[in-house]
């Protein structure tokens, strides 16, 4: 074969091989390009997923913030409503005072009140007192003249707490509410079960939907009345057997300062006497003096309110007995507790003639003193001890 023939055969073959190489190089470039595109796409998808996760986290945080703001708004709304009610009450009192003084005095000279007008005024005052006595059942005619003995029933629980017995006719159960903030009541079948050593095993536990604040709660006719923790002045009515809240109310003027200077955890103290349910608190507007309010235990409606002359300074507790407020005072360091201020809402006794009444044979302090009208005894909590005081009484 000659050189020309060989050249004629090799040239097409080389040309074909060079074309195939170009196709291989083009396919490799295409695959490399596609790989780069897939990697870029995966990166973008990863960034998109991360952005979605960040958005979800931000949305959750925003939702929590909104819910927190709404909760705070509800609390603020309740406080504003309470302040408005308190302001209206003060305005009504001031208006009554203005009307009264305007009817009997003149801005420049003293004028003589007509005899008929004076008689009418006296008749109206007598009628108002008569209605008040009927409302408060004037058959309650005794007054406390002494504290004759004490019995330390048990010593259990924290420094602050409250224990009591429902003063209803057939109630024998004892209730223990330990601490100034808690939501569990211990219920005992009777006083003997309470006095046994292992109190937890013998007690029925009742959990409240809202915790209490302070030690000023009471139990009356199967219902617990207490100051709701975290609120300014909300009173809760709780059915113990059915374990449900059946009533709520805001007490105007209460909650701004402690009811008693020596018991700062108690802003609102509730009490039971022969006439039913009372609320005791102090107000800055009265110079820190104690205010008492008669409540309808069924509806929690306010029936009447009195600004007393009893100061909350150096006071540690108070109780109501037969329409009369008794305020217990002590020294800040603890000592002999004594009753130094008495306020009768019907003016049936001259409270200034009543001597100071001392709690016998005990040095210390009380965070709770509650009167039981059925047994005519005081149920007190002093430095973690549960105490019963027996009383001396006389007719008004």
From TrEMBL:
Keywords: Disulfide bond, Secreted, Signal. This is OLFL1 protein. Pfam families: OLF. Residues 139-395 form the Olfactomedin-like domain. Disulfide bonds join 140-322. Residues 1-21 form the signal peptide. GO terms for cellular component: extracellular space. One of its GO terms (biological process) is signal transduction. It comes from Furnarius figulus.
